[in-house]
Amino acid sequence: MCKPFAITVPAEADGQRADVFLAAFLTKEDTGLSLTRNAAQKLLTNGDVQRTDTQNGSVPISKNHRVTAGELLHLHIPAPAPAEIKPEEIPLNITYEDNDIIVVNKPCGMVVHPAAGHYSGTLVNALLHHCKNSLSGIGGVERPGIVHRLDKDTSGLLVAAKNDAAHVSLSAQLAERRMGRTYNAVCLGRVKQDNFTISQPIGRHPKDRQKMAIRPEGRSAITHFTVLDYLSIVGRSFVQGNAGKGIFTLLEARLQTGRTHQIRVHLASIGHPVVGDTVYGTQKQPFKTEGQLLHAAKLRLIHPTTGTTMEFEAPLPPNFHTDMRK
Known about the structure:
By secondary structure, the chain is an alpha+beta fold.
């Protein structure tokens, strides 16, 4: 079954190649769709993108077609075939569990839910094995129980719902900003302000759909930061102060909103990217580390059934201390 979608080419896109235009246009958040350039080319090759022709009706266009301002394009986007997500016996670091929720401390390197290129070894695969049939179905076949997520290379606390009522309650807490999420991060350089807030809207990067960026037209994004310590490196470990090599800042980051890559984008925007973040920081890192030094350290939520406020903490993982491979 295909999803129909119509686009009127805006004036600023006049003359662009069809594949370039579609990949860029469909990453805008108001379309509800997103495509890589390769995916756009496949649609064009398969004849799933047509333009209105006054003489011949709707005719397919090629990837080399140059769009013109005001041109009406019709897309037929095939619905993705759901992959069979299989339970896998993967160890879980469980912080808390009852009949409604399960809170886990996700390790760096683990993908949360299956996606292209990652249909096994994910947190969902592990949860399906551990929880059997006790996961909410609201997230669909690929995201059962998943209320919020962490990046692959971010470690720390994440809550999953074990039934639909719990999922609805936790999702509402997220949307209404009643769920508290606090992170620890080590960033490059010395952050001078002890306490500060970054309030900059975030949207899709205009050229790279895999990235986010500070965008005037993006969604509101607010992060509150507190400096916890200044660090340097001696041997393969961080030490307090500046007795070793380099200067780094250990931060606490409290999310007021929850945009994709929010902390990473905000810190990079002020010139203090997260250590190990080669997407928003620099490709040349001061040392090699497992993932980025970003950790979901605290989680506060209201229990979906009892109404009790619950708080959980996860200590900093080893890569914050000793994983300084040369």
